[in-house]
Amino acid sequence: MKKYDVLIVGAGIAGMETALNLGDMGYKVLLVEREPSIGGKMILLSKVFPTLDCASCISTPKMAATANHPNIHLMTSSEVKEVSRKNGNFRARVFRRAVFVDPAKCTGCQECEFACTVAVPDEFNFGLVARRAAFIPFPQAVPKKAVIERAGTSPCSFACPTYIKAHGYISLARSGKFEEAFHLIMEDAPLVGSLGRACYAPCEGECTRGLLEGPLPIRRIKRFIAEYYYSRHPEPEYGPPEKRNGKRVAVVGSGPAGLSAAYFLARNGYEVTVFEAQAEPGGMLRYALPSYRLPRDVVSRDVKNITALGVEIKTNHRVESLKKLREEGYHAVFLAVGTWKARKMGIEGENLRGVVDSIDFLKRVSEGESFDLAGKTVLVVGGGNVAIDAARVARRLGASRVVVQYRRSEKEMPAFRWEVEEAEEEGVEFQYLKNPVRFIGEDGQLREVESIRMRLGEPDESGRRRPIPVEGSEERMRVDFVVLAIGLKPSTSPFQDEIELNKNGTVKVNPTTLQTSLPYVFAGGDAVLGPSTMVEAMGQGKRAAFFIDRFLRGEDLQEAEFEYKLPPAKKEEVLSRQLTHTRLNPVKKKLLPPEERIKDFREVELPMTQEEVLYSSARCLDCGICSECHQCILACPADAIDFSQKAQEFEVEAEAVVVSQGFKLFPAERKPRYGFGRFFNVINAMQMDRLLAPTRPYNTILRPSDGKVPENIAYVLCTGSRDRTVNNPICSQICCMYSIKQAQLLMGALPLADITVYYMDIRAFGKGYEEFFQQASDMGVQFIKGRVAKIEEKEDGNLLLHYEDIENGGVKKVAEHDLVVLSVGLLPNPEITRIFKDEKLELDEFYWVKQVEEDVSPARTSLEGVFVAGTAAGPKDIPDSILTAGAASAEVAAYIESKRRGR
Amino acid sequence: MKDKREIIREEMAMRGKILEILKEGAKTVPEVATALGRPTEEVMFWMMAMRKYGLIEETEEMTEDGYYKYRLKEGRK
Ligand SMILES: Cc1cc2nc3c(=O)[nH]c(=O)nc-3n(C[C@H](O)[C@H](O)[C@H](O)COP(=O)(O)OP(=O)(O)OC[C@H]3O[C@@H](n4cnc5c(N)ncnc54)[C@H](O)[C@@H]3O)c2cc1C
Ligand code: SF4
Ligand code: SF4
């Protein structure tokens, strides 16, 4: 545990000044700041009153001195979580947020900011302009290091079984960066085109926008990206990696699991050979998914992404023994043979000619066999996606009637609703609660089916209600062809003597590492999961590649962390970032008309246009803030971006604590009559200070509604101060003077502008303040004594101020201005009290930190050893804040010294 | 009123269109807003961010009605 003499919470001007004083006296100081930069609000100001010295010219050297002081240890993006006492000293838990940039490497060049694809309001410009998810708070930030704002993993990306950064490619698509989007997807999955066509898109199920008008069409956006890229790059842009590690890995099966593993291993320098029993690579993608959903040229182009790396795919090569592969010199094996065996119904007539299983049927169709089903009646048995595919294929082969019999009700059916709808549009009939009991033939040729009606009983192990035959309800139907689609089983039987299998035939693996009972063999995809989805299979391939690499490098597999993700962003929090959400209807899926579809195997779903993609991706709510688009990683010349960075917690000891957490600005929305937050040209004084500062958000002082240079600016003093209706009856002390300062600066910057200050009374106490006020008056600033009752907005963005003109008999008047500045008050920041465990830091009646002996010992608080500096104890200007910092430093030093001497 | 965060978020999707509009020559915020068919206050957010991040810059002269014109800036893409 690190020991300090003093812990200071908050590094605004008061905290920095206290730290510098104490550091100069030789005390070791830990200075903790919540924001990514020190400097507090002062560094964001234009000039300081009454001297009109440049605020950043005063602040910047202090900030630099603080950061470089040998006795000051600075922790930014950090918070003190808890302070307690132990053996007469303080113990504190300090939490440092992950900022995803290595500060030791970051040079502050801002390249990440320029590359970043996510725009959010810039809190350091008080929302007047955007910043990026990757940002350096402001030009004079200390430390001048980028940080990345992340609010968790976006739900869509989190939901992806192969952790494709869905949010990332959406934010790239939104920026029109389609090639970059393609490359981002390729970081996590090589079969981009196939996913764009036929992924079941678990991301969309989690999309936060689903709680509004409907999820983003994430899959279709991916399809657009793949088509955009493939049409420009018929061949991959890369070849085999230069660095090879001399190790060989065999992959058994070229489905999505096998191809994904091969891709990641090859990229890592392994020599990979894929063995495939069929004549062409792709597994189910090529042989089971009908081409009207997934055109075969898309699969072929996807496969090139793997073979371009030098991966050899040996087709027509069925592997029968894993040990033999080892003997042939492969250092490891990935087994991904899928589920190619059909379940049988076990009923009479199953072996008749004209009865086929789904996988056999779909594969033969894919290989070009033209079953002559013209004018025939086809029965498909089953209720999963495979059954629907088979039924729709049968329609395309000319069957005049296609019936799907499913033994449960529509509600229990595992196929997706949209698939059933599309099949129905194509004329497929569904018979629910019905199941064949025998197939009847003549001379070995199917002629009829006898089916029985079912009813639903109690739920079974799967949670679905068990179908029970209704006795005596048998019916016969003439059929010419039957496809059995009642389930698929793993093709693992050749390996049962070499590795352990589960009862259902799936391979037994360690679920984290995918290692089997034979250490050099890993397995994944449907062979492990049972029939699942292509994206789950790809996820397993990627995982296996990671652990095979660890295995072959002789590293401990249990220690390795695969794919660290932040927890998912909370959807309620995402939605609550905005007060309103514009309704943005999803772009509907466009399909060919049903009568066109069934003519042949042409693709059913039509692509989105670029305009639709831009519109759709712009609906994204940026749930996790940073989208993980990885453009910053590519842009950073110092290699400083580090998405694996984690938050840290430290325990420290200190003899004294100083609270200098400053103030909060009065949120002017709490005075709805003034229209702040509703009228763009009603701004607060902090925003005006930003507009006046050299590091301003615009090129000059412009009004936010349309960029016009304002000509007639009003100030409304005491907004949220001396106001019991908002529970802040005290004077904020500084608003009069900062408003006068701004008025003077505006007169200088906009010589033609009129400035009017609506005030209750001007409080110009302090050296030079009265003169400062007079000076403004002499420059032509108009001062009107009167409370502003309400503000209205005109169509042109100008504002009508209704006020009471006190000096002219209290008549009600209306004045027009083109920009209104609310001189907002200061509010306390009382959350600080929460950090003190077991004891209470007392606040005064207005919730500022209580100065228990204000007149003799102004930094003392109710807690021994805890001192206060700056506006934490009440509103004050910069000179007074610096004074209190001086007082706090002296009192802290006296306290420590007397304590050390045993008092 | 549209939430500020929502307007700001749209900048990325609007950039390309605004750059396209400014290819014809320097324009004020209201002029771009008209060309884009979007409200001036939204365009203001987008153009000021584009200025901040080096895609556009102001011309020296102010128009008679008190607006600056913005033009494409060389360098950043
Ligand atoms: C009709 C149908 C439609 C589907 N539709 C979708 C969809 O729209 N979206 C979706 O996400 N998922 C869909 N799926 C599921 C998806 O296809 C699978 O989840 C995915 O293909 C599983 O990938 P895999 O690599 O584990 O297995 P597979 O794709 O089955 O690949 C295994 C490969 O191993 C080969 N092989 C087997 N044994 C050996 C051996 N001994 N030696 C050498 N090679 C061998 C096989 O020939 C095959 O090429 C569908 C499945 C079916 C059947
Ligand atoms: S990953 Fe993308 S969104 Fe996130 S900070 Fe980097 S550039 Fe910005
Ligand atoms: S709103 Fe955007 S980031 Fe959030 S879940 Fe949907 S697509 Fe992902």
Description:
The complex is a heterodimer of chains A (903) and B (77). In chain A, helix 5 (166-174) runs antiparallel to helix 6. Chain A is α/β, with parallel strands linked by helices and 903 residues long. Helix content of chain A is 27%, strand content 21%. The two termini of chain A are 26 Å apart. Chain A has a five-stranded parallel β-sheet with strand order 6-3-2-30-41, with helices on one face. In chain A, strands 15-14-13-16-28 form a five-stranded parallel β-sheet. Chain A contains 26 helices and 41 strands. Chain B is an alpha+beta fold. Chain B has a single domain (4-72), classed as Winged helix-like DNA-binding domain superfamily/Winged helix DNA-binding domain (Arc Repressor Mutant, subunit A). Helices cover 51% and strands 16% of the residues of chain B. Chain B is built from four helices and two strands, in the order H-H-H-H-E-E. Chain B has helices at 4-9, 11-22, 29-36, 40-52, and strands spanning 56-62, 68-72. Chain B has a two-stranded antiparallel sheet with strand order 1-2. Chain B is globular. The N and C termini of chain B lie far apart (32 Å). The interface between A and B is large, with 45 and 37 residues. One iron/sulfur cluster (SF4) binds at residues 115-118, 133-134, 148, 171, 626-632 of chain A.
Identify the notable features of this structure and list them briefly.
heterodimer; A: 903 residues; alpha/beta; 5-stranded parallel beta sheet; 26 helices; B: 77 residues; alpha+beta; Arc Repressor Mutant, subunit A; 4 helices; 16% strand; binds flavin-adenine dinucleotide; binds iron/sulfur cluster
> What's the arrangement of strands in the largest beta sheet of chain A?
6-3-2-30-41
Q: Considering DSSP H and I runs of 4 or more, what fraction of the residues of chain B is helical?
A: 40-55%
Q: Helicity level of chain A, as a percent range?
A: 25-40%
Low-confidence stretches of chain A: none
Overall 3D form of chain B: globular
Largest sheet of chain A: 5 strands, parallel
Do you know the CATH architecture of chain B? Orthogonal Bundle
User: How many strands of chain B?
Assistant: 2
What is the strand content of chain A?
Answer: 15-25%
Q: What is the H level of CATH, i.e. the homologous superfamily of chain B?
A: Winged helix-like DNA-binding domain superfamily/Winged helix DNA-binding domain
User: In terms of quaternary structure, what is this?
Assistant: heterodimer
Q: Approximately how much beta-strand content do the residues of chain B carry?
A: 15-25%
Instruction: Give the C-alpha Rg of chain B.
Output: 12 Å
Quote the average pLDDT of chain B. Answer: 95
Report the end-to-end length of chain A measured between terminal Cα atoms. 26 Å
Morphology of chain A: elongated
Number of domains of chain B: 1
List low-pLDDT spans of chain B.
none
Bound molecules: flavin-adenine dinucleotide, iron/sulfur cluster
Greatest contact pair? A-B, 45 and 37 residues
